[in-house]
Amino acid sequence: HQLADENRVRAEENRERADQNLYDSDMSLAQHTWDDGDLGGTLRLLEAHRPRAGEKDRRSFEWYYFRNLCEGDPHVTLSGHHQAVDCVAFSPDGKLLATGSVGDPVQIRTAATGKMLRTFPEPNVVSLVFSPDGRLLGVGGQDQMTVWDLESGRPIFKHEDALGRFRLAFSPKGTFLLVGTHPPLLRFGQDGGRTELWDYRANELKHTFPESGAYVALSPSGNRLATANWNGSTKIWDLETLQLIRTLKIGGISAMALSLEDRILATTSSDAEVKVWNVASGNPIASLKGSEDSTLAFSPDGKFLVTGGSDQIVRLWDVATPREIGQLHGHGSEVTSVDFSSDGQTVASGSKDKTAILWNIHPRRQPVAVWNVVSRPIFSPDGKLVAAGIEKDKVVAWDVATLKEKAVFVGAAEPVAFSDNGRALITRSANYFLRTFDVDTQIARETILDGPVSETNSHAALSPDGRLLAIGGANGTLTFCNAMTGVVIAEAAHAFASNIFQIAFSPNGNFLAATGREIEAGRSPTAKVWNAATHERVAILVGHTDVVLGAAFSPDGQILATCGADNAIRFWDTTSWKEIPPSLGQKNIVRSLAYSPNGKTLASASFDGKLKLWNVATRREVASLNFKVGADVLAFSPTGQTLLAGGGGIQFWRAPMPTKQDKPSEE
Q1: Engineered SS bond to 169: which of 33, 218, 290, 486, CB 3.0-4.6 Å?
Q2: Is the pTM of this model over 0.85?
Q3: Dihedral sign, Cα of residue 9, residue 10, residue 15, residue 16
Q4: Between helices 61-71 and 2-35, what is the axis angle to 10°?
Q5: Which DSSP string corresponds to 198-224?
Q6: What is the pLDDT of residues 572-600, one digit of tens each?
């Protein structure tokens, strides 16, 4: 029995190790798939580790961070199709959205909320278009085209052509419908389709445009028609006279659109390159590089172009410059169709991921950085505020979500700590020891004048119980002060040869760890630990081969992590103060460290602008992020939903945990 129990325990340990390694590998892979623009692949990797009932929750900051990125910018996501959504179309007033796919009925929804209003039995949709008055819907399908009355739900026009594929456009003048038809088979010597003009009320073919092709684009004014065929010819027609105006040798295309005032034509071809043409001259204006797009649409004013394609990204372009001005991430597969609402504020897109998305093209994106910061930032207990000094004798508290200033504390150089309830902020200055401000009113409640004041390149840390203030000076002196009175309790005059880089209390307040400069004085590079009660040094941590710069205690206080100019991260047992291998490393000097509140993730920042996230249990890298501010300090918010890096500015990474069920396990 004992052997069986041992084998079972060993098997469980091996399974646990394998599962944890799989999580680490998938998080690292999720980073690569996201960087490659594969949102669908990223989501699949993340969702594979969403725990089911009874399963261990391995997720930490990195999972929620990538999941938040995958949420993208969608305004409304519409499900309900069982196949790729190949067509999307707004009604002229922008209140309705029609979507179509192969194998499903056409769906009509409210554009504001996505609520389903009705369906039409059109199972093989190629194109969708509303009539100019918004009362009719034209559906081009395989084998047939139909015009539906939206109020009665009945067809008022239908034309069938076996194996044909129909692309439609309503003329704003009269009861005319422009119809591009692909023939059943592309025959040798044929031009690959034709464009016809139908009177849908009279059910009468009025005109066939010779050698036109099956791709159609009608200008908003209704004066110009662009047609294209497979042999590379694009023709511009005058719809008043039905005469050919100009032939453009553009090459084979897969989609096209005419802008307002009939002046600009946008096309995309089989090589997925979007080009913009001057209709009058036939000359190319621009080629929109960096896209892999197969669908496009102009904004109503013609100033913007929206495109979508195989890279799953919806792109916005400024036509005048022309340059890319935005990317919308949210689809998990190729984007197959796009359209602008009539007010130009919303874009609809359809995708092979079987969804349509309504996008606000002016989303209120969360800012990610503030600048001109001159002190180390600190979080409020609820993680909603972050405070830092911005100039001489001024500290600002920002709303973490919006980065808007919530409070300004005049006469303060740097924040030390928030009160437990977050209603007060303790600060330092060159003019006093400590001052406590009311966060709501920004009025000083109490000032302790006597005691060591703030100096350039000095650092202060308040013990968890708020009674002891430790100060690391630029001259290498470590000072312990009574935080209530400012009285100096103890002083280590030669704690380090010069600059003390960081000081940190253990979570229970029993120990204080410090890092500083020693090599120039001929000493070995070390981190040091003091007993906070006796103020005696209890450990010298030897192992780094160059200056030790940063230190961080794990949330349970059992491990101290240190980093330094030798590019290494080392771990120390806080009972024996012996190193716990293996160490970790980055390609450049590692300046700062921070543990997530649940203890599962360690963040490290190096001088090359790389911020690494490590799984604490396995010591494997799970993500690599870039930052543009300094690396003087890293900090997780108390909720674990925000990570910041500080130094000259503050940069934020957000990993919101929206529901109680979604929060990472603390086990």
Answers
A1: 218
A2: no
A3: positive
A4: 40
A5: EETTTTEEEEEETT--SEEEE-TTSSE
A6: 999 999 999 999 999 999 999 999 999 99
